[in-house]
Amino acid sequence: MIEGKMNNNIDSFLKRLSTLKKEETIFSEKIKYFEGTREEKDDSLSLNNPINRELKNYDYFINNWDLKNDEQLIYFNEYCSVNRRHYIFPVFGSEFIKYQEDYYIHSYIKTKSPKICEYFRENPSEIYEPQFYKYPKSWKSVFRELPPDKNSIYRNFRNDFSMFVEFRLKELYYSKKLSYYQRERFCKIRNLAFKESEFGRSYTIGGDGLIEFEALEFYLDIHPHEMDCFKRIGTDLEVKNSLKDLRVLLDFLGFIPDKNTSIYKIYRSMPRAKFYEFIKYAKKVYYPVRYASIYGEWLKAVIESGFLGQRGILKGKFGYKVISKDGHLCNSLAEKIIDDWLFENNIEHEKEPKYPKAVIDFLGSNIRADWKIGEYFIEYFGLHLESNYAEKMNRKINACNIFKIKLISLFPGDEYLLNERIKSILLSHN
Fold first, then answer.
1. Distance (Å, rounded) from C-alpha 165 to C-alpha 418?
2. Please, what's the b/e burial string for 43-65 (b: 16 or more CB within 10 A of its CB; e: otherwise)?
3. Which of 7, 15, 23, 253 is the most exposed, having the fewest neighbouring CB atoms within 10 Å of its CB?
């Protein structure tokens, strides 16, 4: 690890990634040194090729790069090995993202005719705030392309910067300042070794709620294919016959996952030491949505499994209400998970408390929160993506801000992260 005090985000990420180098997690390791072979010299991504430098604005990035970044890149390569591509931007982009707007100006000017180039070089701010009335009608591309879309600015910067870092890695490799590592780890579930290169083929960053660094930590001794362990295929009868196994899994978890939850959110709710046992139980059951397709509702399948007992459910006009462990009536499974967590952590809480009179008068409605803990009101905004609900939610949050009401807002997925979302806040104010 880099000596001295951690002085930026890159170093803090590297400190976390260093766990990948622990000897006890590595089954075998081969180191590939640059030997100057013909194949390596002719690599199409070589920075010795001036065309690549021009296409990817190499000069712009290298002018903002320093020797400390090279040192960080060497450690980064050692830790991430063949999976480095997935982690380049989360690590190095954390510091270099500040250049994205300047980079867009630099890139935009380079692609234009001499007159347009000269004008925007003298008036770069107009790229983001164009003064169309000043421009000749012949500048059709300017009218069409400006002002730039923020997502495009970010996307272009991310792609080009990541490519630059890839090139820089190869340049360090050619200069013999770093080597490539090919590692195998040992899967405790399969009792077989597997290559690190199988990490990146097994998940989509962001799409399933998996954080990049969690992926590396999850797979230290578990094959990626074992992590996505719920069954997907089965007849209706096979799904119904798995209810006993579903009950065993729910007893193990101690809570009911949301119907549409990512399996990685479930992993995040438990200590890593429990992963192995969870996978053993989860392999015998199906994704919650599969039970919902058979029983009409995921909650109905949970009821049929017997996990909630005989007295824990009430059928109302708008669906099921669930009774928590301390007897509170909850409007959803997510609410029950939160209420049960408060009860199990010995946190005194009031269910559905009224807001202060100032908030009620301001909103013109006798509204209630979901819980109250001391001076804190807690709301679980489970339908925040629906427009009517979102409007009411925003008015409620705004009213709390105006009258300085302490509000903890929870959203779908937060019910699995309550230590972070609630407990840490309460402890910091005690």
1. 37
2. eeeebeeeebbeebbbebbbeeb
3. 23
Element (H, E) at 12: helix 9-17
Q: How far apart are CA 379 and CA 369, in angstroms?
A: 6
Q: Could you tell me where the DSSP H helices lie in 183-332?
A: 212-218, 224-227, 236-241, 243-253, 263-268, 275-282, 288-295, 298-305
Half-sphere exposure of 234 (CA within 13 A, CB side): 21
CA distance 368 to 356: 9
Q: Which residues of 26-35 are buried (b: 16+ CB within 10 A; e: fewer)?
A: beeeeeeebe
> What is the pTM assigned to this prediction?
0.61
Strand arrangement of the beta sheet that strand 329-330 belongs to:
313-316, 319-323, 329-330
Cβ proximity of 369 and 355 under 8 Å: yes
The token pair at 190 is 């399969």
Given the structure tokens 């990817």, which residue do they identify?
56
List of E strands, 117-272? 180-187, 192-195
Mean pLDDT, contiguous 10-residue spans, the chain (430 residues): 48 83 84 62 49 63 93 91 80 89 84 85 86 88 85 88 90 88 88 79 42 61 86 93 94 82 78 89 94 88 81 56 82 85 91 92 89 92 81 90 91 82 70
Q: Among the residues of 32-99, which ranges form H helices?
A: 38-41, 50-55, 58-63, 67-80, 84-96
